[in-house]
Amino acid sequence: MPLIGALPQPITSAPLVFFVYLVLILLIGSALATVLLRNTLYAVGAFAASMVLVALLYLAIAPFLLVALQLLVFTTVSAVLLIGLLRATTGLRTSSVGRLSPEWIIGGAVSAILFALLALVLGASSWPVQPCCAIQESFGGVLANTYAVGLAVLAVIVASAALGSGLMLIGPTRPSPRGGGERSGRR
Amino acid sequence: MSAGLNLLLVASAALFAVGVFGVVARRSAVVMLLGTQFMFMAGALAFVAFARFGLGAQHGRAGATTALFAGAVAVAELAVGLAMAALIYREHRSFALDADRG
Questions:
Q1: B61 within 8 A of A63, measured Cβ to Cβ
Q2: 3-state class of B61 per DSSP?
């Protein structure tokens, strides 16, 4: 249930808190799986799971329209684009770079330093939290009235991405360089 | 036990760090693009968290709206990036960005 509009207090309902923690843990886990898995197909699957988990998280803290758009539009278009890419190429081979290679060590160090820096900023900052003002118009109303031009641009962008993903999907499938694929399109 | 602004901001920071790892450590164009997607996702999550728990709650739906725009931009970036990845694959038969090193 969307909670925007209520007082900006932390969520204290035990089932909802458990839900938020569970979704966050699964989200970080699937994000890690996406960047760590060496098989591109599995990485894409983990990424799609991450998108769905973000939508589930929005279910607890954001307007339902954002949940629906995240789940139905962003997740679908992203997944179709990635599947289209894998069909147009093969992309299923595992990475040639082994774990504990210099790239992984440098990437892990940069990532850890950045996270520590962000955590330091978060810990040192006292974010102002005040009681919420009067509840304003609905999310759809704000989009249609205040952000009409942005909404139109957004619709064009997403429609273009959806068109591109559709074109990728109807294109011919390339044969695998390893001989494992099967040509399904016309020559 | 509660779930508030700090929890979501820490999760957002962790998600951003994971995305940075994907961009820095991996050579595959696809995984690097997915890393940038996680960074977009982290920013959108922070916007939504501030809109729900912070001062952003005073400004109605601005945080969620920004998250919506960030999501659309992320999808568009993914579309352009994947088209580039497809071109890289056709040229080198690999998604590795340094495939021309031999």
A1: yes
A2: coil
Computed from CA positions of residues A161, A165, A168, A173, in that sequence, does the dihedral angle turn out positive or negative?
A: positive
Residues forming beta bridges with residue B96, ordered by sequence position:
B28
What CA–CA distance (Å, rounded) separates A6 from B53? 9
Q: How many domains does chain B have?
A: 1
CB B15 within 8 A of CB B31: no
Residue B92 with chain A: CB contacts under 8 Å: none
Which residue segment(s) compose the domain that B21 sits in?
A: 5-101
pLDDT for the residue A89: 74
Element (H, E) at A53: helix A40-61
Looking at residue A93, its pLDDT comes to: 56
Q: What is the ipTM for the molecules in this complex?
A: 0.88
- Alpha-helix runs per DSSP H in chain B: 5-25, 29-53, 62-92
Is the CB of residue B10 less than 8 Å from the CB of residue A27?
A: no
Domain CATH code at residue B94: 1.10.287.3510
pTM: 0.73
Q: Residue B60: how many CA atoms within 13 Å on its side-chain side?
A: 15
Please check whether residue A136 touches B, CB under 8 A.
yes
A28 touches chain B (CB under 8 A): yes
Indicate the length of chain A as a whole number: 187
How close, in Å, is residue A182 to chain B by CA atoms?
17
Interval B48-64 mean pLDDT: 73
Q: Do B75 and A43 count as a contact with CB atoms less than 8 A apart?
A: no
Per-residue pLDDT tens over the stretch A69-117: 888 888 888 888 888 787 777 655 555 556 667 777 777 777 788 788 7
Residue A130 touches chain B, beta carbons under 8 Å: yes
